[in-house]
C-alpha cells in the first residue's frame, strides 16, 4: 500500500508495508530508492488485507521456495482519527509510478491532504496526496485463516529500520493493529 504525493514531473510515494523495504521497492520501480521518514496522521496500519493465494498465486515466498497455498495477510491502512502510520516516502518518475500502479491494483485510490503528514524534512510536494486503500473484496472475511509470511514481516521491519533507524521495528509494532479475530 502506498500514498502518492503528486508533483509536476513525478511523484512522492508514501509506503507503509513491504514497499518500505528497498529491495521490494527496487522490484517495483527498477532502481534503488532513498527512503525518507514520514508519518501519516488519521490512519492506522492493519493486517486486514488478504489474498486467497490458493486461487491467485500472487504471493510468492522465497524462503518457502514457491507459492503459499493459503490466505495471505498483508498490510493495509484504515481511517482512525487517533492513529498514525510511520512509513517511508521516496520520489518516483511517471514511468515508475505506472509500475507501482500495477503493483497496487487491488487497492482503491484515495485523495489525502498533505497536511495529514509529518515529515522529518521539507519535501517539495503538492497539496493533495493520493492513497491506495485495499478494496473490500481483498480484505479479511469471516472464516478465513490467513497467514502472515515471515518474509513479508521481515521486509516491513527492515524497511522501517532503513528509514527510521533502530527504533523502526518498535514504531512498526506500535502503529500496527490486528483486526479482532482475524489472525
Write the layout of secondary structure elements.
Blueprint: E1 2-7, E2 10-15, H1 22-29, E3 36-52, H2 53-56, E4 60-61, E5 66-67, E6 71-92, H3 94-103, E7 107-113, E8 117-119, E9 128-134, H4 150-164, H5 168-174, E10 176-177
Parallel strand pairs: 3-10
Antiparallel strand pairs: 1-2, 1-9, 2-6, 3-6, 3-8, 4-5, 7-9
Helix pairs in contact: 4-5
Uncertain ranges: none
| Count of alpha and pi helical runs | 5
Overall shape: globular
The figure for the number of domains is 1
Q: If you compute it from the alpha carbons, what radius of gyration comes out, rounded to the nearest whole angstrom?
A: 15 Å
Tell me about this structure:
The chain is α+β, with helices and mostly antiparallel strands. The protein has a single domain (2-169), classed as Hypothetical upf0131 protein ytfp, CATH 3.10.490.10. The protein is 24% helix and 40% strand. The protein contains 5 helices and 10 strands, in the order ββαβαβββαβββααβ. The strands form 2 sheets. Strands 1, 2, 3, 6, 7, 8, 9 and 10 form an 8-stranded mixed β-sheet that branches. A hairpin with a 2-residue loop joins strand 1 (2-7) and strand 2. The longest helix is centred in the last third of the chain and has 15 residues, at 150-164. It is globular and about 45 Å long. The model has no long low-confidence stretch (mean pLDDT 75).
Amino acid at each position: 500500500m502506498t500514498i502518492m504525493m503528486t508533483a509536476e514531473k513525478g511523484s512522492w510515494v508514501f509506503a507503509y508495508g513491504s514497499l518500505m523495504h528497498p529491495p521490494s521497492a527496487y522490484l517495483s520501480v527498477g532502481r534503488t530508492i532513498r527512503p525518507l521518514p514520514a508519518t501519516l496522521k488519521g490512519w492506522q496500519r492493519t493486517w486486514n488485507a488478504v489474498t486467497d493465494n490458493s486461487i491467485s498465486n500472487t504471493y510468492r515466498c522465497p524462503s518457502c521456495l514457491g507459492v503459499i497455498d493459503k490466505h495471505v495477510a498483508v498490510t493495509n491502512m484504515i481511517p482512525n482519527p487517533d492513529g498514525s502510520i510511520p512509513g517511508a516516502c521516496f520520489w518516483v518518475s511517471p514511468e515508475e509510478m505506472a509500475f507501482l500502479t500495477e503493483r497496487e491494483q487491488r487497492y482503491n485510490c484515495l485523495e489525502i491532504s498533505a497536511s495529514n503528514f509529518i515529515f522529518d524534512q521539507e519535501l517539495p510536494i503538492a497539496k493533495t496526496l493520493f492513497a491506495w486503500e485495499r478494496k473490500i473484496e481483498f480484505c479479511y472475511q469471516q472464516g478465513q485463516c490467513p497467514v502472515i509470511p515471515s518474509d513479508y514481516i521481515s521486509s516491513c521491519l527492515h524497511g522501517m529500520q532503513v528509514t527510521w533507524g533502530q527504533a523502526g521495528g518498535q514504531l512498526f509494532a506500535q502503529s500496527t493493529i490486528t483486526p479482532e479475530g482475524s489472525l
